[in-house]
């Protein structure tokens, strides 16, 4: 049973369960010949994600020189002290107050999208995909009439293939647009995240760092949140008893989102880390200079950590999933993603308690690749049959 191919995409868990049973870490070689180590158990995942001897520093190759710096200074590809400084600067602007202030807008956007749902229709296209994009525009402060172009570049970058001419052109256009937007916000300050970042006093982000940070927020926060909303609705449609629990007690919606994060982790793996000294996990010692990644899908179903790990249970109270990572790179956007997903699920169920799949769940198609875990489409009806 392998990690590549249609069988894995349709259901990755049998292959991951086999690896997890065999040991905490495994050497994997992709069909393209790239070798890395994959961690499949929870305890070792926590160890790896918090280990300062694993470096996140990665070169960004394959872009024209003028775009290189604008892409490569992002904090997800940095170690301390660079990472510490970048994370401190953005955390000062990405406050709980700013996220909470977005709540009424997120509710408004969600209601509009839920009102527009067609039956039958595709929940990904109609709700899960547009919602996080509109919310990130609100958070960053992209003016309403400029969002069409912004959406075009963003979609090409998120859905496109790194290295293609189309992809590079979209990055170039986006970088140019962002530089102009920052200039406008410097000249006329705005009360949004980018406004706060450009007008920070004292130590502040350089122009390349600002571009890099904005693109990171856009990319890190979009597809992951699309997958979380889609996976939550999928799991509830697949488990009508659990859906009924939520309809009887809507206070369980946050717990259902946490259970989705655990059971169907939207970011299937963390991004790469590289060993800077030999790393021993179980009986394996990984040499220096090797790539390591954590399969969040595997570790969040580790029976050594979770009781009945394969069961979707909205009454589960033991928490502890690693879907947002762990350690210094723990997801900056977790509170925002949770808020969006809770609102989306809550509003969808209260408006359409009868939502259900129009195809058997086994026929649904999942996005390919090891990094993300989300549906390409989620065909639903919202009218009672
Ligand atoms: C980092 C998952 C939504 C911004 C991470 C990491 C994970 C993750 C696993 C750690 C990567 C690693 O250690 O290699 C998710 C999931 C999301 C989500 C599952 C939605 C369900 C968001 C949102 C934003 C965001 C909405 C922002 C708008 C970031 C940033 C980092 C990050 C900036 C890098 C933090 C650092 O390097 O210090 N995310 N994310 N994420 N995420 Fe998220």
Which ions, cofactors or small ligands are bound in this entry?
Answer: protoporphyrin IX containing FE
For the record, the CATH class is Mainly Alpha
| Overall form | globular
Succession of helices and strands: HHEEHEHHHHEHHHHHHHHEEEEHHEE
CATH architecture: Orthogonal Bundle
Topology, number of strands: 10
> Order of strands side by side in the largest beta sheet?
1-2-8-5-3
Low-confidence stretches: none
Biggest beta sheet summary: 5 strands, mixed
| Spatial gap, N to C terminus | 40 Å
Helix tally equals 17
Mean pLDDT: 93
Tell me the name of the CATH homologous superfamily.
Answer: Cytochrome P450
CATH topology: Cytochrome p450
What is the total domain count? 1
Helical fraction: 40-55%
Describe the structure.
With 385 residues, this protein is of the alpha+beta class. The chain has one domain (6-381): Cytochrome p450. 51% of the residues lie in helices and 8% in strands. The protein is built from 17 helices and ten strands. It has helices at 6-10, 13-22, 42-49, 65-72, 82-93, 96-101, 103-115, 123-128, 130-140, 147-159, 165-187, 193-198, 207-238, 240-248, 253-263, 296-299, 334-351, and strands at residues 25-29, 35-39, 54-55, 121-122, 273-275, 279-281, 284-286, 291-294, 356-357, 379-381. The strands form three sheets. Strands 1-2-8-5-3 form a five-stranded mixed sheet. A three-stranded antiparallel sheet has the order 4-10-9. A two-stranded antiparallel sheet has the order 6-7. Helix 7 packs antiparallel against helix 9 (130-140) and helix 13 (207-238) runs parallel beside helix 17. The two termini are 40 Å apart. The relative contact order is 0.18. Bound molecules: protoporphyrin IX containing FE (HEM). Protoporphyrin IX containing FE (HEM) binds next to helix 13 and helix 17. Protoporphyrin IX containing FE binds at residues 49, 75-76, 87, 136, 216-217, 220-221, 224-225, 228, 266-267, 270-271, 323-325, 329, 331-333, 336-337.
């Amino acid at each position: 049973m392998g990690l590549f191919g249609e069988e894995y995409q349709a259901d990755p868990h049998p292959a991951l369960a086999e690896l997890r049973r065999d040991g905490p870490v495994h050497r994997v070689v992709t069909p393209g010949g790239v070798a890395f180590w994959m961690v499949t158990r929870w305890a070792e995942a926590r160890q790896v994600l918090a280990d300062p001897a694993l470096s996140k520093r990665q070169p960004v190759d394959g872009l024209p020189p003028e775009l290189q710096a604008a892409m490569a200074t992002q904090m997800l590809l940095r170690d301390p002290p660079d990472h510490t400084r970048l994370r401190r600067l953005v955390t000062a602007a990405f406050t709980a107050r700013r996220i909470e202030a977005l709540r009424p807008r997120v509710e408004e956007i969600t209601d509009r999208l839920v009102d527009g749902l067609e039956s039958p229709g595709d929940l990904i296209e109609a709700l899960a995909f547009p919602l996080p994009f509109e919310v990130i525009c609100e958070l960053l402060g992209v003016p309403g009439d400029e969002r069409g172009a912004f959406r075009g570049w963003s979609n090409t970058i998120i859905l496109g293939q790194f290295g293609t001419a189309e992809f590079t052109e979209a990055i170039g256009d986006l970088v140019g647009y962002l530089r102009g937007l920052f200039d406008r916000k410097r000249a006329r300050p705005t009360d949004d995240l980018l406004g706060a970042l450009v007008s920070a006093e004292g130590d502040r982000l350089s122009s390349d760092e600002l571009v890099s940070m904005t693109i990171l927020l856009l990319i890190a926060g979009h597809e992951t949140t699309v997958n979380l909303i889609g996976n939550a609705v999928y799991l509830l449609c697949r488990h009508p008893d659990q859906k009924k629990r939520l309809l009887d007690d809507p206070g369980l919606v946050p717990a259902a989102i946490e259970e989705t994060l655990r059971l169907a982790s939207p970011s299937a793996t963390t991004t790469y880390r590289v060993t800077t000294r030999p790393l021993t996990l179980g009986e394996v010692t990984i040499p220096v200079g090797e790539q390591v990644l954590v399969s969040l899908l595997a570790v969040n179903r580790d029976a050594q950590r979770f009781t009945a790990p394969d069961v979707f249970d909205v009454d589960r109270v033991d928490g502890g999933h690693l879907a947002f990572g762990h350690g210094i790179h723990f997801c900056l956007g977790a509170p925002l993603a949770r808020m969006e997903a809770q609102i989306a699920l809550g509003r969808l169920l209260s408006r359409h308690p009868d939502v259900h799949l129009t195809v058997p769940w086994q026929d649904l198609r999942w996005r390919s690749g090891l990094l993300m875990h989300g549906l390409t489409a989620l065909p639903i009806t919202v009218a009672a049959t």
